[in-house]
Amino acid sequence: MSKADSTKRQPVTGTGRFISGVVEGFYGRPWTMEQRTELFKREQKWGLNTYLYAPKDDYKHRMYWRDLYAAEEAEQLMGLISAAKQHDVEFVYAISPGLDITFSNPKEVAALKRKLDQVKEFGCRSFSLLFDDIETEMCPADKQAFSSFAHAQVAITNEVYKHLGEPEVFLFCPTDYCAVFCTPSVTQSSYLNTVGEKLLPGIDVLWTGPKVVSHKISVESIEEVSSVLKRAPVIWDNIHANDYDPQRLFLGPYKDRPTDLIPKLKGVLTNPNCEFYPNFVAIHTLATWCKAPAEGAPRDVEMGDEEQDPCYSPQKALNLALTDWLEEFMSTDQPGGRVVVTLIHGMSVLPGPCHPRLKKESSEEEPMQTDMGESPYVPGPGENPLYTAEPLTLDDLKLLSDLFYLPYEHGTTARTMLQELDWLKNQSQAAAAETDKVTAEWCSRAQQFDNMCEAVVQMFNRLSNAPNRSILYDLYNYICDIKSGVGLARAYVKTLGGHSQPSAQLLNDDPEPWGFRGGLSGEFQSQDIYICGILQMKLLLLLLLQNSKVTIVFFLLGSRGAFCELRQSNRRMLDFYSKLGSFKLVQMDGLPQDILVMATSL
């Protein structure tokens, strides 16, 4: 390699303003205008500066990208762009024409320009063209006009960029937007090399890292892709995205991205959970990460810090976020503003009176009855006391975060519960057959596990009573699910210890519908699909209830086997598992006579 070539291939580090903030880029119901305005307030407060508008299921963003916005839609977008400016947040409008655009047709290019010109008239000054998650095969007309898919995308992107006056912020999302998509590798990808060579230098490139949802993003990986793109990328980070699994939510901190990345990047945008309100932690901790190198002396690296990052502690960032989030939980949305609930001696108290006592106006019509500031009801002797909700605590939110942590790991409490459940299951027979000392240890650990389960139940109760209902409603399905799973695990451990009979939910021949996975998904599960494929570490017995005839499959993450229980009378499922060949009959003591157990290795 010549000296000139060597200089040419050096990684380009990030320069200028560091882009930081949020991309609304998930599949599913888009956020409301009110929620986005709330987001801008939070970004300004926490020091983030960018919002990328790219909701996949906004049909005029992607599916019907050619259609101009109607008057009412235009008014909403103008209000949103104005709100972003008021809070010093750069509003970046993204459009995704890649599903069906013909790159070589001048009318298509004109339609794209016309759409972006309309948004520019709304006051938007920053734009993005996205070509992610599309087919890579060009139509015959484009094959005649362009030598490759990359050349087609780059040509139209450069043309639109110049048409818009070369905006200061203009983002391009390639079809190969992560390392795993690059063939045969990042450095040898003809697609990425074309983008790097041909894309105008004022256009920044979005990149998700090694994978679509990257566990870790290293400095070395960014230097590699920067050398190919000839510019520092903007990370589109999916670490908190949950649109690929409706049963997952991520409330852990921004982590596994060293702060040494910051001078190597043009920016970082998090694409978080579909639910708006639970994203408090994801966005708050990203803001802490972005500010970490600029906030002075390196911190002391703590024992157990996986990243060994001298500037940023994920755990400390999480604690800061949860502390602030607790204040949000203790506020309530009311007409005319937010009312903060004060905790006095463990009781939730509204600042009062909430409304001044109103004077009755002389009118022929009786005024509508409202809260007139009367004294609160006080029960008399022998009457039921008023219900008083226990206030939510910081420990509750730490537990919540542990149970819904990150895609590649669970929080400390969740890991402990899973480990204890596995130990209790494996040691149950030994505890019953051996010495009092072994039995005492088993009983002690079973009680500790039960206490952890009870903490989850109490957390659920306090969350359910939190004044901020908007947050609760976004969390409700998830916390109901985990409470149910913990209840099953709790009952199972008590059964192992001989303290109760097997749960009717487990062995009932005609269970309630909540005792098994329902709908078509449940039917698919009964075909043994999930046994080897799901590996989804939900905090329950990791048990799949197959159908209304109660075929049950158990497996523990990290174990090498799975087993199922079914009744001898359930000939259909017995015949299915036998013919499948994956499960074999095994002998187990202590089960009812009509229960068969089958097992397989994973």
Automatic annotation (TrEMBL):
It comes from the Eukaryota. GO terms for molecular function: [protein]-3-O-(N-acetyl-D-glucosaminyl)-L-serine/L-threonine O-N-acetyl-alpha-D-glucosaminase activity; beta-N-acetylglucosaminidase activity. Pfam families: NAGidase. Residues 354-380 are annotated as: Disordered. Signal peptide: none annotated. InterPro entries: GH, Glycosyl_Hydrolase_84, O-GlcNAcase_cat. Its EC number is 3.2.1.169. Gene3D superfamilies: Glycosidases (3.20.20.80), STAT, domain 1 (1.20.58.240). It catalyses: 3-O-(N-acetyl-beta-D-glucosaminyl)-L-seryl-[protein] + H2O = N-acetyl-D-glucosamine + L-seryl-[protein]; 3-O-(N-acetyl-beta-D-glucosaminyl)-L-threonyl-[protein] + H2O = L-threonyl-[protein] + N-acetyl-D-glucosamine. This is protein O-GlcNAcase. One of its GO terms (biological process) is glycoprotein metabolic process. Residues 18-294 form the GH84 domain. The keyword Transcription regulation does not apply. Transmembrane segments: none annotated. Keywords: Glycosidase, Hydrolase.
